[in-house]
Automatic annotation (TrEMBL):
NCBIfam families assigned to the protein according to its UniProt record, in alphabetical order: flagell_flgL
Protein name: Flagellar hook-associated protein 3
Keyword set includes Cell membrane: no
Compartment(s): Bacterial flagellum; Secreted
Keyword Isomerase belongs to the record: no
């Protein structure tokens, strides 16, 4: 095969260019300490490196989520610690206020302090994280989960639990629902117990009872509303005791009168409407007792006022709003806060453990990346030396060949 001079020059120029590019690439790899990352250099290695980098990106996302979970749980723990202290203080004040030796002025002072503590507790229940999301709203994180209304504090959040992905198949809870901490999903919150205590603390300073007795006569004035409410109570007289149920509304106690008179033979107690007060006048030849009163229309406070034969009015509460019941509910609220703080601590410990797992995986991914990216310096230097020798030899051969002319071959 005959090679023309232009083709010979072109082939040698291309060969020298390829060698020069290879030398430049090797020098670049040696200076950076990294292998050529282009897929054309090593398709298999590039594919494995791409998979490793995807894993590293996923681990970075998981790590961010774990930090987010940990931050929210830490803030929830701080809030619950303060809420526990506030609730414990309210309970202690309630125990003091229910003492029979407590003076009226002291009870009023306690009521003022408990009112302020209630506001502090409401603020804690509506606490937010650094991004402005409610800590105890469930999935409802934008608005305040606990809202003050005409009937007290109500829960507007839900029972959801925010979770963030921290591995390919595992997610962590980033908080707990306000319904679990302060109550509310079933309609009753810790604030209801505090309100009942404040209601019981009012008036003349004496704590109402769920049972009242009188001899001969008794004036009963139920706490009535415009809308009819369902009432139940236990009525005891000289002849016996019965459980009664009736409907009553403001200005209408005929249902109560009929229910009581229908059981006169069993109780010995009769009733009639008092025209002056609109209440009931009970009479019997002996002792009369009323207990266990409940009314669907009365959310808190006394369900009725009873004036016995001595003329001293007495407030009657439902059984769940008596002195012992209110103290028990306040204690239960404190216990719940302690339990939920323990739960937050367990979730936080789980987040810390998961963070360690992610850190370990990151180390493994870094090692895998190093194995794929880091250059074998000895091998690269050997290849560079071989390329330099090859370039020099090619250049020398090219120079010698191009120096000869036709006359040199004819000699």
């Amino acid at each position: 095969m005959t090679l023309s001079t232009p083709l010979f020059h072109a082939l040698n120029t291309r060969s020298l260019s390829e060698i020069t590019d290879r030398i430049a690439g090797l020098q670049g790899e040696i200076s950076s300490g990294k292998n050529d990352s282009r897929a054309s250099a090593d398709p298999v290695r590039a594919l494995r490196l791409s998979a490793v980098n995807e894993q590293k990106d996923a681990l970075d996302r998981f790590s961010t989520n774990v930090e987010r979970v940990g931050s929210r749980l830490d803030q929830a723990d701080i809030v619950l610690k303060e809420a526990t202290n506030v609730q414990r203080r309210i309970r202690d004040l309630a125990l003091r206020a229910t003492s029979d030796t407590m003076a009226l002025d002291e009870r009023k002072s306690i009521g003022i302090e408990v009112t302020q503590l209630r506001q502090s507790l409401l603020g804690l229940a509506n606490a937010r994280d650094e991004t402005g999301q409610a800590l105890f709203g469930g999935f409802q994180t934008r608005a305040d989960p606990f809202v003050e209304g005409p009937e007290g504090v109500s829960y507007r959040g839900d029972g959801g639990q925010i979770r963030l992905q921290v591995s390919e198949s595992f997610s962590l809870a980033a908080g707990i629902s306000g319904a679990d901490v302060f109550g509310g999903e079933a309609g009753t919150t810790v604030f209801d117990a505090i309100d009942d205590f404040l209601s019981a603390l009012g008036g003349d300073g004496s704590f109402p009872s769920d049972r009242v007795t009188s001899k001969g006569t008794m004036l009963v004035q139920p706490t009535l509303t415009r809308d009819p409410g369902s009432w139940s109570m236990t009525l005891a007289g000289p002849a016996g005791e019965v459980a009664l149920g009736f409907d009553a509304a403001a200005g209408s106690v005929s249902g109560a009168v009929d229910a009581i008179n229908a059981q006169t033979a069993r109780t010995g107690v009769s009733a009639l409407r008092d025209p002056d007060t609109g209440g009931l006048v009970l009479s019997a030849n002996g002792e009369i007792a009323i207990s266990g009163v409940t009314a669907s229309s009365v959310r808190s406070g006394p369900v009725m006022q009873v004036t016995p034969e001595n003329g001293q009015p007495r407030a009657v509460m439902s059984a769940d709003q008596t002195r012992s019941a209110v103290i028990g509910r306040l204690q239960a609220a404190s216990d719940t806060l302690i339990d939920q703080r323990t739960r937050v601590g367990a979730l936080s410990a789980n987040a810390s453990a998961q963070a360690e797992v992610i850190d370990t995986r990151k180390v493994m991914m870094a090692e895998a990346t190093a194995q794929l990216e880091d250059l074998d310096l000895a091998a690269a230097l050997t290849k560079l030396q071989q390329s330099l020798l090859s370039r020099d030899a090619t250049q020398q051969s090219y120079v010698k060949i191009t120096q000869k002319s036709l006359f040199d071959y004819l000699r």
